[in-house]
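Researcher: Next entry: LysR family transcriptional regulator (Craterilacuibacter sinensis).
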Amino acid sequence: MDIRALRYFAAVVREQSFTRAADSLFVTQPTISKMVRQLEDELGTPLLLRQGKSISLTDAGKVTLARAEDMLHSMQLLKRELIDLSELKSGELVFGLPPMVGAAYFAPVVSRFREHYPKIELKLVETGALAVESQIRTGEVELGIAVLPVNTDDFSSLAVVNEPLCLVAPANSAWHGRESVLLAELTEQAFVLYPPDFTLTAHIANAFRQMDKPLNIVGTSAQWDFLAELVGARLGITLLPHSVAQRLDPAKFDLIALADPDLRWHLALIWRNGAYLSHAARAWIETTRSVLPPTKDKS
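Model: Predicted structure:
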């Protein structure tokens, strides 16, 4: 059995699309389709149900995915253990980082790590926090940043950032001059937010469900600065972490603290429970501890 077929199959399930899976692996879509079809032929049973744009797993597909994730993780483990023989004199660290997190918090960590371990190749994978969790499970990424809470059965974590969210609205909005605002006051507004697979958007959507209110999303982007441009164009309002919102020009935006205590930007460095951690990963954890003092997890 070709290990690539298992990797391609897991990517299709994760991305819910043959095209997006091909893009994420830098191969062509026909290559992905061919390898998945060969895997199904080799196993003698369908693994995926294709209904329009929807992809779901058959019973055999669910079993195969679980075993594929174990095998992919084992392959990554073997590579890391062999690299470790050089004791940080060479090797790589693959780190999952949501786009907003890198600019706001982790540039100093990267700088310190590069200063101390210049021969370690650092590969930063920019993707949503939920995707980071998925990629850590399969071993594609060794460490990453996620939004708490995470499943403690799956992950160990080091909480590093805990700050409030801010309402970002056009200057001279209805909330101009306010020090704080409650989410309940925003239920009739149009929002521009991160895509649905980003954890912050999921948390906001869940808060709206708890209030039994619809969340009106009129635009999405994976980049916080473009979300701000959409707000400036008066397409809608958004919610950003305090430290990110403070980068915006207060002459162009109203920046008001969100007073809801349960809706905060609480980030953690996470890794797979019980997994082998390379020396590079351990060094990254210690570097993070020194640059970003751990916060208390109140989740």
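Model: Note for the record: The chain has three domains: 3-70, 82-160+265-291, 163-264.
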